[in-house]
Amino acid sequence: MSADIRKIAVWVEETHMEAGQVVAPAARKAVAVAVIANPFAGRYVEDLTALMDIGAELGELLGQRCVAALGISPAQAQSYGKAAMVGEAGELEHAAAILHPKLGAPLRVAVGGGAALVPSSKKMGGPGQVLDVPLGHKDAAFVRSHFDAIEVRLNDAPRAGEIMVAVAVTDGGRPLARVGGLTHEAAEGRDGLR
Amino acid sequence: MPEVVVRKIATVVEEIFHEGGPVSANPPKRGAIMAVISNPFAGKYVEDLQPFMEDLKPLGLMMAQRLLAVLGGDAAAIEGYGKATLVGSGGELEHGALWHAPGGYAMREVLGGAKAIVPSAKKVGGVGARLDVPITHVNAAYVRSHFDSMEVGMNDSPRAGELMVVLVMTTGPRVHSRMGGLEASQIKGEDGLR
Fold it and tell me: Which residue among B10, B19, B154 sits closest to A6, beta carbon to beta carbon?
């Protein structure tokens, strides 16, 4: 089953200053979100395979949208994250079906690698509610400068029978990162952790 | 003259495929660009604000150009527009009115002389406040299918001493518009109204 997509939104933000300090190059984040029909809204369905397949489709689509919006090559992506918000006629497990089994592999193709776990969040919510998408370094989860999040929300989604699915990608860490730990430059990126 | 200090810029593009009705053959897009800048008048009453409008013109032009670019780059494809300002709590509503001239003229310039008045909204708000930016047809304000709005906001803006200035453009009508009235195909485009 391919996703019935009502809407796609792509957000890009760049921070040029923080706390009076110039951030150069600007810290940039992108988040792409698709609002889809939930094929299982309003009923209990045991087999969630259809949503898993939609997850694969959206991992590729939304990952590519983020990379394109940042104007970078896939290899230049540094951190990523994913999240889903299920409208009230669905269940939390529907978000899990989209996010966990199949979304990651095509997302990793879109960002040119990704040895690290894709950090994720999920919740139930209604139109206008905030979804915070966690961010972590794509190749080494312990890179401390890249732990972050980006907020996404759409005033008209998710409706009761919908799911809002988000993928976030950056080409750098937090502005003015200075709490030490493993750095992007020192990361080996082999085991996904360091 | 105060310098324009930009802390952050964000763009968002929504692509609307359907809203429960037939899938659009040419999905309309809504795009917004937001710049978060220092409010040079925050925390005090300043009588003469108008020189700052001149200072904002290059920012307006850059924003209009970037917004057009994220919507595909074709000025002829832009059918609707709007603008708005969100004033941080250290400022006054009148500071939001500084955006009228630079925001409006910048879009007209980039769109090659759009005829209709650019609808606008302004308010004072805190960090995370949302702003509904009104939208009308670029050449004839009475085109009913293009009356719309787009909600924007940023979780970390505007801080007390900041202004968030916004431009919005759309590439088409409401996705299932069917309220009659003046149609885009019927406009004369001489007076900006019909």
Answer: B19
Q: Using one digit for the tens of pLDDT, what is the confidence trace for A81-131?
A: 999 999 999 999 999 999 999 999 999 999 999 999 999 999 999 999 999
Could A6 and B17 be called an inter-chain contact, meaning their C-beta atoms sit closer than 8 Å? Answer: yes
In B, what residues contact A, Cβ < 8 A?
Answer: 5-20, 70, 130, 151, 154-155
Tell me the Ramachandran region of residue A180: left when phi exceeds 0, alpha when psi lies from -120 to 50, beta otherwise: left
* Paired tokens of B99: 């955006």
- Interchain proximity B17–A155, CB inside 8 Å: no
Residue A22 CB neighbours (<10 A): 11
CB contact under 8 A, A18 and B14: no
